[in-house]
Amino acid sequence: MKGLLIYLKDYKKESVLGPLFKLLEASFELFVPLVMAAIIDKGIANGDQKYIIRMCLVMIGLGVIGLVCSITAQYFAAKAAVGFSTKLRHALFGHIQSLSFTEMDTIGTSTLITRMTSDINQVQSGVNLVLRLFLRSPFIVFGAMIMAFTIDVKTAMIFVVTIPLLSIVVFGIMLITIPLYRKVQAALDGVLGVTRENLTGVRVIRAFGKEKEEKIRFQEKNQNLTKIQTYVGKISGLMNPITYVIINAAVVALIWQGGVEVNIGNITQGEVIALVNYMSQILVELVKLANLIITVTKAFACANRIESVLQVKSSLKEYPNEEMEKKEETIGTKEELAVEFQDVSLCYQNAGDNSLSHLNLKVKKGQTIGIIGGTGSGKTSFVHLIPRFYDATQGKVLVNGRDVKEYAIEELRDKIGMVMQKAVLFRGTIRENLAWGKEEATEEEMYRALKIAQAFDIVQGKKDGLDAVIEQGGKNLSGGQKQRLTIARAIVKEPEILILDDSASALDFATDANLRHAIRNMEGQMTVFIVSQRTSSIQHADQIVVLEDGEAVGIGTHKELLENCSVYQEIYYSQFQHQAAQ
Fold first, then answer.
1. Is the dihedral of CA 504, 505, 508, 510 positive or negative?
2. Can you tell me whether residue 546 is helix, strand or coil?
3. What DSSP string runs through 209-247?
4. Does the structure show a pLDDT above 80 at 171?
């Protein structure tokens, strides 16, 4: 939690003024029982109506001043809490964006969403309540006890016994519930994970008639959360009855002792009423403090979860600028390969075995490289090493003769246009989505990219053209349309290296062929990597890499592989059976 307090540094004034005004309100509240005692002992006892009215006006004045102080404190506390949570949310989102794919895979999407939303809201609520009540409640409790001592020392000793007992109950329950609330948040992650999975895969679930199974799975996760929350709730629920028993016992003792003291003339009836009022104030404030501690306990658990994410460092290390400049000086100006793999192996974090093993490949500028293999052979892992989404665990990946680890991440990825397996478009216009590739792109450049990606007809068919709206995730487009637009977005960038990771799977053979032909005839020396399950998509590539279980079992042209690579032959003839029979 301490690490998150830096986000409150711009709200120092509010963090001081909020509690200060609450203490002022509490101070005025402590005078009310004394005014009540004066009304009983002087006004009512003497039948002095003017004095009663005057004291009643004083009480109203104290109430109005207290209300103004309370509203002012609420304003400053809310401003600090909302500002704090806004800065924290920005920082957390920015940090998540800086993490590599490795950390994102390890932590999990559902957990990150929970921490960005529910956890931060809980921390915001905790900060707000702390600024308003954390000082006020103890101040009232100890202030009431001190005021009781000013009335009668002997009777006030009841307060000395009561307050420690209440503190033991309150803080004991707090210590028990803190670790349990962490379990509650973890169980909430589980529920959110299942919910997210069901919503994103709703079509698949319905296609296979798995609604009942998914309902049962959700019910199990939900019941687990309910069970933990119920258990924590029962423990937290003990706080109010136990505190009420202690307070009521203290009030009984107070009235009994007060009656004795009145009889012997040590205190007046009004002062007994004042003492009971002070005890009632203590009761109210300790109940508030108990509820506050429960909220703060949840906030602490959530803050620790947020802090744990902020403490995760990206596994992708960058050289300082000075070191990179020195490296650049030693590279020279010789003609370089576009991409080179030197004995590259990759093992994902917590994986049992390598996903890629001892890959060697040299790719000249302007070449087209096809990558093919069975499911799980490592095709996507292969191309993810080029933009450095993951770091090779062994060997080197070089771009333009330079180790990818020696580039600034932004500089490296600026050279690369990446089209992922799953076509992802963002809510906005077609123009805004294409501008992700190049912010200053002109309409001419966008239309050129659309024509190459065979997506020009999509824009032509829209009434608003480039300004046609795309729904979140491209829900108002077909799978093929989404793929073509994502390819156009990458081409707008005019990258040195274009990677198409099975990004034409939803296209028909004619459109796929036209796309490959248009990319091959693009101006400039663009190096293209095409990952595909179709041999027809890659058979005209300059080199084809055949992967099996993370190893390159064949590298060569279509003709060469068809002669001497059994894995490639098997894939090819399974797709073109009529040629196998010839």
1. positive
2. strand
3. T-HHHHHHHHHHHHHHHHHHHHHHHHHHHTHHHHHHHHH
4. no
**Same domain as 333, residue 203:** no
Residues 340-357: pLDDT tens digits? 999 999 988 777 788 889
For Cα atoms 440, 444, 449, give the angle at the middle one, nearest 5 degrees: 85
Shared domain check, 335 and 228: no
In the chain, the amino acid numbered 164 is P
**Domains of the chain: total:** 2
pTM: 0.70
* Half-sphere exposure (Cβ direction) of 137: Cα atoms closer than 13 Å: 20
Question: Which one of 258, 275, 310 terminates a domain?
Answer: 310
Kindly tell me if the per-residue pLDDT of 328 is higher than 80.
no
* 285 and 384 belong to one structural domain: no
Asked if residue 339 lies in contact with residue 361, where contact means CB atoms within 8 angstroms, the answer is yes
Angle between helices 153-200 and 269-310 (to 10 degrees): 30
CATH of the domain at 222: 1.20.1560.10
Say how far apart CA 120 and CA 90 lie, in whole Å: 11
User: Which structural domain, as residue segments, surrounds residue 154?
Assistant: 2-310
Residue 319: the pLDDT is 60
* pLDDT top residue among 268 and 320: 268
Cβ neighbors of 400 (< 8 A, separation 6 or more) are 336, 337, 338, 415, 496
Residue 332 or 473, more confident: 473
Q: What is the DSSP string of 438-474?
A: -TT--HHHHHHHHHHTT-HHHHHTSTTGGG-EE-GGG
**What six digits make up the tokens of 183?**
């379990």
The reply to whether 287 and 350 lie within a common domain is no
Alpha carbon 560 to its chain's center: 50
Nearest to 444 by CA among 516, 492, 511, 484: 492
Same domain membership, residue 84 and residue 41: yes
Does residue 320 carry a pLDDT above 70? no
Q: How far apart are CA 452 and CA 522, in angstroms?
A: 8
Of the pLDDT bands very low, low, confident and very high (cuts 50, 70, 90), residue 78 is very high
- Together in a domain, 350 and 253: no
DSSP collapsed to 3 states, 339-393: EEEEEEEECCCCCCCCCEEEEEEEECCCCEEEEEECCCCCHHHHHHCCCCCCCCC
User: Is residue 164 domain-resident?
Assistant: yes
201 and 103 fall within a common domain: yes
Q: What is the pLDDT of residue 579?
A: 47
490-500 burial: b if 16+ Cβ within 10 Å, else e: bbbbbbbbbbb
Residue 177 and residue 299 in one domain = yes
Query: Positive or negative, the Cα torsion across 565, 570, 571, 575?
Result: positive
